[in-house]
Amino acid sequence: xxxxxxxxxxxxxxxxxxxxxxxxxxxxxxxxxxxxxxxxxxxxxxxxxxxxxxxxxxxxxxxxxxxxxxxxxxxxxxxxxxxxxxxxxxxxxxxxxxxxxxxxxxxxxxxxxxxxxxxxxxxxxxxxxxxxxxxxxxxxxxxxxxxxxxxxxxxxxxxxxxxxxxxxxxxxxxxxxxxxxxxxxxxxxxxxxxxxxxxxxxxxxxxxxxxxxxxxxxxxxxxxxxxxxxxxxxxxxxxxxxxxxxxxxxxxxxxxxxxxxxxxxxxxxxxxxxxxxxxxxxxxxxxxxxxxxxxxxxxxxxxxxxxxxxxxxxxxxxxxxxxxxxxxxxxxxxxxxxxxxxxxxxxxxxxxxxxxxxxxxxxxxxxxxxxxxxxxxxxxxxxxxxxxxxxxxxx
Length: 395
Prior knowledge:
The protein contains eleven helices and twelve strands. It is of the alpha+beta class. It folds into four domains: 17-119, no CATH class; 127-200, 2-Layer Sandwich (GMP Synthetase, Chain A, domain 3); 207-269, no CATH class; 280-340, no CATH class. A five-stranded antiparallel sheet has the order 2-1-4-3-5. Helix 2 (123-149) packs across helix 3 (181-191). It starts with 50 loop residues before the first strand and ends with a helix.
């Protein structure tokens, strides 16, 4: 969903719009909603929905009322109402889809105390906003150093200035409750602005900052994932994954959200499998489950005392043996069922190249003339030396 200026140029290199997240189409921003109703006109007599979605730094969005009925489009910079002063943001959605988004997030459209849009941002508003955004990165470096000097167990992850540069919000993460009263005094004395501290979770921090996951794509929480459901280690157990915290943890330090994506499919597939703690009773001995393969529907059992010898059977065969055990019918051994199941290990390959050989472009190296001349000279010398040796031997 990138705009035309973000397309690739020569040799597949990306052009890049170089707007740093403020392009007019708003297609380069994370958590963007595509306005598929933009080209559709309203029926006669209907007024457009007078609420607008405005986005701020790192995907923070809010909804504002448009009492002046300003003509706003996606990508417009507007000055919005704040608790004190005003803020500056970019319009990301207008029209009826705003109503759908507000209903989805349980926001009342009939609230009289709702925040409003003041005006379209003037050049002065944009200059003050840009100057405040340029201060955020050096402020973050100093703020982290101040927290370290006060021995506070917290991490300043991000700083966001209000549009009129009258307030700075410090986002931080911490394992426990932190007493930052002394830290606020240091911040106010150093930065000379109103300070607001806001604690966020580790997942929210990763979604704000963004990054690349182990799959090679952008983080789901910073592109399309809006709700953070709890992830437990049982999700990894159901999917037969090794409980390695280095592989299961994401950049936020918590379990990856993608562990829940295919969990329902695995749970549906496991309903056909018998429980792994059920033992199979046979005349040869009692068999215990050692391993299962959800994709192929196989189960491996081993007799008690013969833990090194595994016998592979199908899920239907395991359920059949369990039914026989419930009915007290004798089962000779697992080998009978394992022998019935013969796996076809023959691999069938197709000649995708055709009749041509893979080495058809390889040419044997030609021997140099010097080597051939040397070999000929050595042969001639050997021929000359042989009769002399024979004469000496006869003497």
